[in-house]
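INTERNAL AUDIT FORM
Audit reference: QA-55
Scope: verify that the stored structure record matches its stored sequence.
Auditor: D.O.
Record contents follow.
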Amino acid sequence: MSLLVVDDHPVVRNGLRGMFESVVDFTVLGEAANGVEAVDLVARLDPDVVLMDLRMPGGGGVEAIKELSRRGARAKVLVLTTYDTDSDTLSAIEAGATGYLLKDAPRDELFTAVRAAAEGRTVLSPAIASRLVSVVRTPPQSQGGETLSSREREVLALVAKGTSNREIARVLFISEATVKTHLTHIYAKLGASDRAAAVAVAYDRGILGSAGE
C-alpha cells in the first residue's frame, strides 16, 4: 500500500515515514511540504493514500483536496491534522477527503485508518464524528454563538476590551499566530469581516452578554 505524506513540518514527515516504513505492507513514495507540491506528486507518483495536513504555508490541504478531486485522482485523501473545528472538518470532507484523523491518534488506529481509506471507506476519529453529528442535528438558526469554542470566547472577550493580538497571546499563553487562527475561525463562525464586526455580532447574539454590560 503506497503513501504520500503531506505536512509542512519535516520532523512530522520523517516521523510518519519511519512509522509506516516499519510495517511491511506500507511504502512511502514521497513527501510534500504543502498542498501545491502534494498535487504535483500525486500526479507523478500515483499513491494509494495521501496523508494530508490542512494548514500549510504555500498551499493548504483543503485546496489540494479540491484540486485532486477535480482532476479525478485515484488516491484517497486521509486528513491528519491538529485542527478539529467544525469549519476545518466540514471543509475537508466537502472537498473530497475520505477520512479525518487528529495527530494524537494511536499508531494502530492510524494504520487501520489508512487501510480503510485505501478501500474507500470513510474514516473519522471519534471526536470528529461526534462534532459532525452535532452540527448536522443542530438547526442553522440555533447554531449562532454556540459554535464558538471556549478558547475562541476567551479571545473574543479580550478583543472586545480592545486588547491587541500580542497582549492576548501573553494573557492566554499562546502564540500570536494562534491568536490570528482563532480570530479567523471567529470571523467565519460569526459571519464577520473584522474585529469590530465580530464584537458587534457577539453582543447581538448574547455571546459576550449585552452591549450595556
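Auditor finding: record pair retrieved intact. The longest strand covers residues 27-32.
Action required: none
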